[in-house]
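hey
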């Protein structure tokens, strides 16, 4: 039951052709060609001037402030939602307790 079943090799059906005979070729030494040189792509160098450095710092600061504001607002939304659910739970519990005392 737990032994693997190995497939058997099928026997060829039909006519079998013999393999073709490959004759060796002679190698004649010739003039070797030098390998082609790979051109190196030229990229412009980035020069960091005080103006671009200030722009990078300003852009990074803006990104950090925007992401921070989004995260703080999401945290505040979760906190307000949790507080409102807690208040709703207290109100429902008090209503159930008042209804139970009347009986």
């Amino acid at each position: 039951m737990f032994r693997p079943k190995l497939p058997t090799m099928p026997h060829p059906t039909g006519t079998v052709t013999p393999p073709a005979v490959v004759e060796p070729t002679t190698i004649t030494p010739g003039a070797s060609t030098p390998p082609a040189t790979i051109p190196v792509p030229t990229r412009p160098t980035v020069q960091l001037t005080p103006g671009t450095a200030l722009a990078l710092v300003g852009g990074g600061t803006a990104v950090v402030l925007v992401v921070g504001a989004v995260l703080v607002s999401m945290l505040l939304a979760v906190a307000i939602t949790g507080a409102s659910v807690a208040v709703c739970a207290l109100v429902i519990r008090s209503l159930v307790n008042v209804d139970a005392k009347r009986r």
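The first helix runs from residue 50 to 102. The mean pLDDT is 84.
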